[in-house]
């Protein structure tokens, strides 16, 4: 089912079966997607990295994630574009920026507990019912239902990310850091830049992250650089030098040393390995 209007707002809701792969892969600019596995298991390869979803797990993706492969028994998918609902402009309503979407590094996966399953199921049923309406209030209702889905998911993810150890304002700083890294990782590789944008010192930022995770801010920046580097090596025809320059490295040797320290092989060796795997 698809909702659209003359202002280019688009919301899509699907009950998926294994023949619907083309629907999943048809991602357009500014699309946000979440896929809810309703079968026993769902296997995906995203940017050459395998992911496995168990029953009642949801994965959250942006237009920048490339799905290479997907196999599943049954699933539900919601896809919406920025004109329909901008998670950045409406962050105060949902709090998903830098958490469910634009999280800088790992792809978020939410596990629906038995205690929360009825909330998700009811939301889905109302969602599907509302898609069949056509009055002037339909878009407002669909946006409200989308927000409810996102808020339910944010609550679960905040618990899994140990956000209960910090207050709301500290959680907002972490989410904003993640979002800023997503926007600026190619130009700014140092924690000091992001700390200044948040009006904090690098030490304060590091101390805050240590309360919820063993991953320091610098690790998050480096991991995001590596995600883009691998993606460009795997999918583009750019030379290693061009990729290095795109990521803010004027010196290819500096980039190669950084890449090898993270991946264990040089960028050229990495490209050769995956070219041979595809061939």
TrEMBL record:
Record keywords: DNA-binding, Transcription, Transcription regulation
Pfam families, A to Z: HTH_18
Origin species: Sphingobacterium paramultivorum
Gene Ontology MF terms in the entry: DNA-binding transcription factor activity; sequence-specific DNA binding
Positions of the HTH araC/xylS-type domain: 175-273
Coiled coil: none
InterPro entries for the chain: Homeodomain-like_sf, HTH_AraC, Tscrpt_reg_AraC-type_HTH
Protein known as: Helix-turn-helix transcriptional regulator
């Amino acid at each position: 089912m698809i909702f659209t209007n003359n202002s280019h707002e688009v919301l899509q809701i699907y009950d998926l079966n294994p023949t619907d792969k083309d629907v999943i892969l048809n991602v357009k600019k500014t699309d946000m997607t979440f896929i809810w596995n309703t079968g026993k298991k769902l296997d995906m390869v995203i940017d050459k990295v395998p992911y496995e979803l168990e029953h009642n797990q949801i994965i959250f993706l942006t237009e920048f994630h490339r799905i290479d492969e997907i196999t599943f028994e049954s699933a539900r998918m919601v896809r919406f574009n920025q004109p329909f609902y901008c998670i950045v402009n409406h962050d105060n309503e949902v709090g998903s920026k830098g958490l469910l979407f634009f999280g800088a590094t790992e792809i978020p996966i939410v596990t629906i507990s038995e205690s929360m399953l009825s909330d998700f199921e009811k939301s889905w049923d109302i969602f599907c019912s509302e898609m069949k309406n056509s009055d002037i209030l339909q878009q407002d209702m669909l946006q409200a239902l989308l927000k409810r889905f996102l808020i339910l998911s944010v609550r679960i993810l905040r618990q899994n990310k140990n956000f209960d150890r910090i207050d709301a304002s500290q959680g907002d700083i972490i989410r904003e850091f993640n979002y800023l890294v997503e926007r600026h990782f190619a130009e700014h590789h140092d924690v000091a830049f992001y700390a200044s944008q948040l009006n904090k010192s690098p030490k304060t930022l590091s101390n805050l992250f240590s309360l919820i995770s063993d991953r320091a801010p610098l690790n998050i920046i480096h991991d995001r650089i590596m995600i883009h580097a691998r993606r460009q090596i795997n999918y583009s025809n750019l030379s290693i030098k061009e990729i290095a320059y795109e990521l803010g490295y004027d010196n290819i040797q500096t980039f190669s040393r950084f890449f090898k320290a993270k991946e264990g092989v040089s960028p050229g060796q990495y490209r050769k390995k995956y070219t041979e795997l595809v061939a």
